[in-house]
Prior knowledge:
It contains 15 helices and 15 strands. The protein has 391 residues and is an alpha/beta fold. β13, α10 (299-306) and β14 (314-315) form a beta-alpha-beta unit. The longest helix is centred in the last third of the chain and has 19 residues, at 261-279. Bound molecules: adenosine-5'-triphosphate (ATP) and magnesium ion. Magnesium ion is lined by residues 186, 188, 345, 347.
Amino acid sequence: MKEVILLKNGELALKGLNRHTFENQLIKNMKYRLHDLGKIRYVQSQSTIMVEPIDERVDLDEAFRRLKLVFGIAALSRCAAVEKNMDVIIPAACEYLKEELMFAKTFKVVAKRSDKRFPLNSPQICMEVGGAILDENPHLTVDVHNPELVVSVEIRDNYAYIHGNQTKGAGGMPVGTSGQAAILISGGIDSPVAAWMMAKRGLKLSAIHFASPPYTSQRAEMKVHQLLKQVAKYSGDINLCVVPFTHIQEEIKDNCPEDLFTLVMRRFMMRCSERIALDQGCSALITGESVAQVASQTMQAIRCTEAVVEDLPVFRPLIGMDKDEVIEISRKIDTFDISIQPYEDCCTVFTPKHPRTRPQVKALEEAETALDVEGLIDEALSNLRFVSISG
Length: 391
Ligand code: ATP
Ligand code: MG
């Protein structure tokens, strides 16, 4: 029996005239994600996309696993594609869904007929298929309101498609349809989640990481690579820019008041990031900040770090979330176990004992007069290293 994957693209269907751009990007993303699995045909009609293996060797289980992570897909199901003839459809439905039918207690049949030339209408298809299922599975009862199993029969141009319950997709918008943004990524729990959340809204990601060797180790950077590799399973490839941060941090330590270390450092991060992001064609910065999580994330502190960003919006998708909620997502997207590996981050290297929690922009500007801000940034930006990360 020929098997295909049927996708519903949810939110995309709402996009009116832009729909085709969104669908085309989604198909492009899927093709890229499945390119090594063999020859596959992608057929779109209304708000569904059919993924049809042409090559017998295509591993449909693996294709399904990967497609579950692709943003822009609301729901997906594996289905049997059979000849449009009730003598074929009925036994195929009983056979293809045998296991699900065996384990369910209640079911209903839903039929859709986009090929209006098909001799039976939808209620008739439901009656016939439902009747045959009941004959073969006397333990089942029909429940039209809240069935455990929904058997779908869709009569389309070339085939009749039969499937059971749909699996929820990753949702969101296809990556690339909302432009590109740069995630400031540490090795922590928050920033990979922030990256995932914005990729879900259709943003293609670049990443920026500040490293302070020898205070931070090569293994700390490898942890960031690992985190991005996991995020890239959803977002597609990510270009990572590693910024040498040691000299800037030492200068801050030697010349600025201790209670302002973290904020001066974060202002340097934002300044460097904005320049790198603009250079890479990004239209926003993304951070994993959340109000009140740490001293550098009070409203006043955020005001101080934001004050140095001139041309780009800063997206903070976790701003109103509790740590518990962030952890729940990080477990779901499999970044949690990587994040909790105990490697140092440059933020923790020179942490002041008593950071100022209600800083004023003026106090920071004054502290920074002791530094050659532009010179330090230029020096860091002339020694960038780029790493391409695939999922
Ligand atoms: P995370 O779990 O993301 O590390 P955090 O709670 O430890 O977050 P901070 O260390 O205050 O928060 O950092 C806040 C944000 O600043 C991070 O979410 C991240 O976006 C950015 N950031 C922190 N350290 C780095 C770094 N070394 N390189 C790039 N960005 C960083
Ligand atoms: Mg951190």
